[in-house]
């Protein structure tokens, strides 16, 4: 019974080499992995209260909501992927890596303090191979070729017997490498983009079902700045879908707001517990037509200066928000509710425990429970 790589090599007139297979996420390479990048600070404050120049305590509001109010956040979104180097394949005189991936995107809903359950899960299996696996790439039939290839692949006995199938083949550019460029990174980027597209899809599905409103917000784990860019009309629709969504980043770059905010890293480090910074208006080079309100909130006291601090983002949807900033009362309401989401913690089980919001931790755990084991997945190839 042919395995997946033998089938792909045979169908694309390539030669596979039975290379060493491994999961990228299990390779321990020390690095700072930020969820945000250095961007552009707009020359405006990100909120309506222009007099706010120091940090602000949200403890009293958080206590009031905790005792008498209803939580603002009802839905929790997390997305992750596991990527694997599963072989090398030769086309012409060059070898290219084959990258496979498991993607997990889930939304969980908290109906009341006793009920927390998943309401949406997308966990496709994908493969990324070079574009020149299609020998007729120049004719422009890439989509048809790879659609037919995935259909044939899913008909193979090794997948049918295990009741598994791959959703897509994601071709990456096989053009010459530039300095510090790797084909592995191109394949991983394709899988990452597919995960982001699925995150946007589940947000759209919640909006379409009228689940999100002023009393029912969604927290997305991670930065919002990787949302899809596109035509003005499409971008306007995407922005409106995020009207009741905030992004919360555990791993942020304290210098990401550019040199225009020279002392921001020290201000973040010196934040007192339950305090937030003023909000800044922010753009990214990736989607310059979108403006964000960005602020930082300390939810726990720790020894490390940035542990216990979250970066919070909200897309500015309406024209008045882009002019005046996000309403400061809304920022306070969001921040106070986030403070109330912090407990209990997963202390000792995750080195990010000081930044965890517990519903997001549960959603992430749910996604991971749906992955095939690394050994099982790798042995398909």
Write the layout of secondary structure elements.
Elements: H1 4-11, E1 15-16, E2 22-23, E3 40-45, E4 56-57, H2 59-68, E5 73-91, E6 94-112, E7 115-122, E8 125-128, H3 142-154, H4 157-160, E9 168-169, H5 183-208, E10 217-221, H6 232-241, E11 245-249, H7 264-269, E12 275-276, E13 280-283, E14 292-298, E15 309-315, H8 319-324, H9 328-340, H10 358-369, H11 374-378
Parallel strand pairs: 5-10, 8-9, 10-11
Antiparallel strand pairs: 1-5, 2-5, 3-13, 4-12, 5-6, 6-7, 6-8, 11-15, 13-14, 14-15
Helix pairs in contact: 2-9
Overview of this protein structure:
Helix 2 packs across helix 9. The N and C termini lie close together (11 Å). Strands 1, 2, 3, 5, 6, 7, 8, 9, 10, 11, 13, 14 and 15 form a 13-stranded mixed sheet that branches. Strands 4-12 form a two-stranded antiparallel ribbon. Strand 10, helix 6 (232-241) and strand 11 (245-249) form a beta-alpha-beta unit. Residues 28-34 have low confidence and may be disordered. Helices cover 30% and strands 25% of the residues. The chain has helices at 4-11, 59-68, 142-154, 157-160, 183-208, 232-241, 264-269, 319-324, 328-340, 358-369, 374-378, and strands at residues 15-16, 22-23, 40-45, 56-57, 73-91, 94-112, 115-122, 125-128, 168-169, 217-221, 245-249, 275-276, 280-283, 292-298, 309-315. The longest helix is centred in the middle third of the chain and has 26 residues, at 183-208. The chain is of the alpha+beta class.
What features would you highlight for this structure?
single chain, 381 residues, alpha+beta, 13-stranded mixed beta sheet, two-stranded antiparallel ribbon, 25% strand, elongated
